[in-house]
Structures are given as structure tokens and as C-alpha cells.
């Protein structure tokens, strides 16, 4: 009878703990972090030529007659258009920071659907030469139209979407002489600035909005000007991603008024380290 009572008590405690954990998970908002959207102007040179030839041959008993004709069309120029897409390189560190420092639950969203491939300018001009009509490209989805993407179901299951767009991204390769020496430093750096908005998927209310910056660099010292320098691009991208995620996390937590659990953990870790140091000092004094 005692064993049965203990078993029932243990089962009741487990049920309470599981129910408490489930209630906590249910209360935590679900967030999707999108890949960083970008759009840029692109120019391309196109060249199209079409040649049409026609020939006839008329042979009789005492004569042969032949005719031939040839015509052609040629077009060339520069075509400009807006290219849009997503960068998935810089968002995993943001997700990790939110998982570590907040009670948010993260939901994986769908990748941006750019629509069906569009005919190139050369293909459009060739079609006009052949049919006499210019094919009109169909309207493509806009990667920055977050409302349309929410309605389309790209973030199903999420209460909020943290939507980021690239406003500036630049690689720089700089060379600087070292004073007093014949050597120089060669630095590869990356600067990234992105705009973020936290949007309610049901009401479309903006709960937070800010700009965040990330930066990374790799510096090499070169003793001779003909030395071959191989920069670590992976290190540069990793540092940029980490600094960007830190800036995003701090601004998001600050605007929402949430407790910074990562700062609390660091403070508790520092306090524990100080306590261990004091204990060691006491032992040494003995």
C-alpha cells in the first residue's frame, strides 16, 4: 500500500510538472525569423540576331533557273531590372540568441517564393522579331511585401515575424603601410546594416522596429609587396553574423522590455567565479 501511494504521488508530481511546462510553452509566443531580404539593380547586355533565307531552283530540259534571297534582323542593348531574393547566411546566430536569451519559441518559415522564371530580355526581343509582339513579363512577388507573404502562408504557425531587409552590405579590401617598417597590412572587412520589424501575423501590428549592424574583418601583415595574401572569408562572415545577432538581440529585448537572460547568466557566472576565487584565497590563507 505504501509503494502504491508513493507511485501515485510520483505520477501526480510528474503530471503537474509536465502540465506546468506545457502551459509555459503555450504562453510563449512563437516567432519566425526570416532570411534577410535584398533587392538590387542589375544591368545586362543583350544581343539578338535572326537570319531568314529563301532559295528556289527551277530546272527544265534545256535550262536551269535559281533564285536566292536572304534577310535578317539584329538588336543589341543594355537592359536594367531589379533582382530580389534572400540571404540565409546571417540569421542562424539571431535565432540562437533568441533561443538562449528569451522564452520565444521559434517556428521555421517557408522560403520566399519568387514565382516562375521570367524570359530574359534577349528572349523577349527574339519573340518580338518572330511574332511581331513583345511578350510582357508577369508580375512577380515582392520579397519586401511581408503582408502578402503572411497571407500566402509562408509563416504558418507563427504569432510574430521578425522581418529583416538588407539596407547596406559592402566588402572592403584595404592596404595600409606599417610606419617605420617596409611591411604593410592588408585587411578584408565586411559591413552589413539591416532594418528589422517584428510584426504580428494576425493584426499586422509592428511591435518593434530598428536597424542593426554587423561587422567582421581579417587582417594580414605582408612583408613583401609580391606576397600572396589569402584572407579567411569564412572568419569575416562569421564575425559579421555574430555581431549582427548581438545587436539585433539587444535592441529587440530593449524595445519589448524583456529581461535579458543572457546578461543574467553572464552576471551569475561572474558571481560564481568570484565566489570560487574567494574560496581559493581562503584555502591558500589557511
Report on the architecture of this protein.
This protein is an alpha/beta fold and 286 residues long. It has one domain. 36% of the residues lie in helices and 37% in strands. The protein is built from six helices and seven strands; from the N terminus they run αβββαβααβββαα. It has helices spanning 2-27, 92-101, 121-131, 146-152, 233-256, 261-285, and strands at 30-33, 36-59, 64-87, 105-106, 160-177, 184-200, 206-222. The strands form two sheets. Strands 4-1-5-6-7 form a five-stranded mixed sheet. Strand 5 and strand 6 (184-200) form a beta hairpin. Helix 2 packs across helix 5 (233-256). The radius of gyration is 32 Å and the shape is flat. It starts with a helix and ends with a helix. The model is unreliable at 12-25 and 272-286 (pLDDT under 50).
How does the SSE layout of this entry go?
Elements: H1 2-27, E1 30-33, E2 36-59, E3 64-87, H2 92-101, E4 105-106, H3 121-131, H4 146-152, E5 160-177, E6 184-200, E7 206-222, H5 233-256, H6 261-285
Parallel strand pairs: 1-4, 1-5
Antiparallel strand pairs: 2-3, 5-6, 6-7
Helix pairs in contact: 2-5
Amino acid at each position: 500500500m505504501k509503494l502504491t501511494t508513493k507511485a501515485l504521488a510520483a505520477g501526480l508530481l510528474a503530471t503537474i510538472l509536465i502540465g506546468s511546462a506545457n502551459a509555459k510553452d503555450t504562453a510563449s509566443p512563437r516567432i519566425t525569423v526570416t532570411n534577410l531580404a535584398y533587392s538590387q539593380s542589375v544591368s545586362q547586355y543583350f544581343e539578338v540576331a535572326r537570319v531568314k533565307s529563301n532559295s528556289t531552283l527551277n530546272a527544265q530540259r534545256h535550262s536551269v533557273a535559281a533564285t536566292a534571297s536572304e534577310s535578317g534582323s539584329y538588336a543589341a542593348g543594355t537592359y536594367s531590372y531589379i533582382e530580389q531574393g534572400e540571404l540565409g547566411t546571417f540569421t542562424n546566430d539571431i535565432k540562437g540568441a533568441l533561443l538562449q536569451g528569451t522564452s520565444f519559441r521559434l517556428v521555421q518559415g517557408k522560403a520566399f517564393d519568387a514565382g516562375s522564371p521570367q524570359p530574359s530580355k534577349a528572349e523577349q526581343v527574339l519573340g518580338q522579331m518572330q511574332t511581331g509582339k513583345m511578350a510582357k513579363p508577369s508580375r512577380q512577388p515582392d520579397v519586401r511585401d511581408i503582408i502578402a507573404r503572411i497571407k500566402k502562408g509562408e509563416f504558418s504557425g507563427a504569432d510574430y515575424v521578425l522581418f529583416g531587409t538588407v539596407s547596406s552590405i559592402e566588402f572592403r579590401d584595404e592596404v595600409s603601410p606599417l610606419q617605420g617598417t617596409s611591411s604593410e597590412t592588408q585587411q578584408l572587412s565586411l559591413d552589413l546594416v539591416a532594418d528589422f520589424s517584428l510584426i504580428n501575423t494576425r493584426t499586422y501590428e509592428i511591435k518593434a522596429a530598428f536597424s542593426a549592424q554587423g561587422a567582421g574583418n581579417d587582417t594580414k601583415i605582408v612583408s613583401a609587396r609580391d606576397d600572396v595574401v589569402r584572407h579567411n572569408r569564412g572568419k569575416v562572415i562569421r564575425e559579421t553574423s555574430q555581431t549582427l545577432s548581438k545587436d539585433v538581440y539587444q535592441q529587440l529585448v530593449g524595445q519589448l522590455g524583456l529581461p535579458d537572460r543572457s546578461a543574467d547568466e553572464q552576471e551569475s557566472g561572474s558571481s560564481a567565479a568570484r565566489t570560487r576565487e574567494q574560496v581559493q584565497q581562503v584555502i591558500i590563507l589557511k
